[in-house]
Hints:
2 helices, mainly beta, 210 residues, 42% strand, 14 strands
Amino acid sequence: MMGQGSYMAPAGGNPAVAVVGQQFIVPYPVDLNIVRKMITISEGNFGVTDANGNIMFKVKGKFLSLRDRRILLDAAGNPILSLQQKIISLHRRWEVYRGDSKDSRDLLFTVKKSSLLQFKTQLDVFLASNTSEHNCDFKIKGSWFERSCSIYAGNSSVAIAQMHRKHSVSSIVLGKDKFAVTVYPHVDYAFIVALIVILEEINEDRSNED
């Protein structure tokens, strides 16, 4: 399957979301921990583990390239998604491709700020098949100060995942941010991880501008 993600809303149940792949969907909630190293000279600044501490994903960044680009890798180091920020974009537009691709045929979804001026971060997510972008397929509503967010199906009130920051002494001493993410049943958790990474990159840009 090239490009195309999909979204289905079963009657009487939680939305079923398959964007990256069926292998990232399970019929129960998935709790993930995302750790971001605030000060790092290595390429990998995000790590994602399950509730038992097992590595699920890593994020490799290319900070010195002309475009901000991140690669989401599985535990074995295989590229799952390529996240790329457009150079000139007032809405902080990110494009996400399958694997390590930059080919438009492998575009899965795009993410951009809902509006230019925001007190609380809101991002619109459009699947590749939604070329008109009149209505978003998913929406991220976050609070920069509380470092929390919820991800919704379209403009509805149906949440598909939630994230909140975990405060600890080690966060300050070790220069790490930790986030707890709960992905709801039948929702693509690789897709959710990519959205959280993009949200944090946009929030980091915002804090640097203040």
